[in-house]
Amino acid sequence: MLSEESKSPELARFRPPIDEARPTLKVHSGVTLLLGGARSGKSDLAVETATQWAGPVVFVATAQAHDDDMAERISAHQQDRPDSWGLVEHPTFSATDVDGIDESALIIIDCLTLLVSNLLLSGSSEHQTVTHSAKLASALAQRRTPTFIISNEVGLGVHPATTLGAQYRDTLGRVNTAVSRRASTVAMVIAGRVLPLVDLELQVTPGPNRADVQTPEGPDGHL
């Protein structure tokens, strides 16, 4: 999840002038779920926001350096974070692992996308993976300090070409939904901009009885 801005400090510092103050999305205790596509800026947003926290910050990394490219990405992310932050490297971070983190710390989990992949590749079923993630979100939601969970939205593209790809897409979608239900704040990050996602209740207005519905007919009496 290394963006061009992370590679280039001068780009990271660039912010277009804003004539009016931007609306504020206040983050309180509990879980804040940041969704978005690849390179959308969600990781950068979490890190930037966490620097405002007066207490300790713990970064939970779920990535594994299986190749040189991933090792380079992990190294670049580490350089972007303050040295004072704590680091937990755990590919399948779980609810029981939450107890080992300082209660006064803000937590960033980057990312749920890879955590789900790691669970599936280790042999977990979809049900087990969703349950694992839901329990993790529930444990984090009970903390008095904020937690940022970062995840990708992978269900907007073409249908995966492989069975494993389709299983991963479906599982991550259900995991995102399960975590969202336990989050106090959910937002979509697109091109570095934040779009709050509101939980609306859908209601259907009672309509007429089926017997009262007139079916339109054509000139010859047929539909």
Number of strands: 7
Strand-pairing-aware structural class: alpha/beta
Largest sheet: 7 strands, mixed
Query: What is the architecture at the second tier of CATH?
Result: 3-Layer(aba) Sandwich
The end-to-end span amounts to 54 Å
Number of helices: 8
What share of the residues does DSSP label as strand, in percent? 15-25%
What do the pLDDT scores average to? 85
CATH topology: Rossmann fold
**The CATH top-level class label:** Alpha Beta
Work out the radius of gyration. 21 Å
| CATH evolutionary superfamily | P-loop containing nucleotide triphosphate hydrolases
Structure notes:
This protein has eight helices and seven strands; from the N terminus they run H-H-E-H-E-H-E-H-E-H-H-E-H-E-E. It has a seven-stranded mixed β-sheet, sandwiched between helices. Strand 6 and strand 7 form a beta hairpin. Helix 6 packs antiparallel against helix 7 and helix 7 packs parallel to helix 8. The longest helix is centred in the last third of the chain and has 18 residues. The radius of gyration is 21 Å and the shape is globular. The N terminus is likely disordered.
Short description:
The chain has 223 residues and is α/β, with parallel strands linked by helices. The chain is built from eight helices and seven strands; from the N terminus they run H-H-E-H-E-H-E-H-E-H-H-E-H-E-E. It has a seven-stranded mixed beta sheet with strand order 3-2-4-5-1-6-7, with helices on both faces.
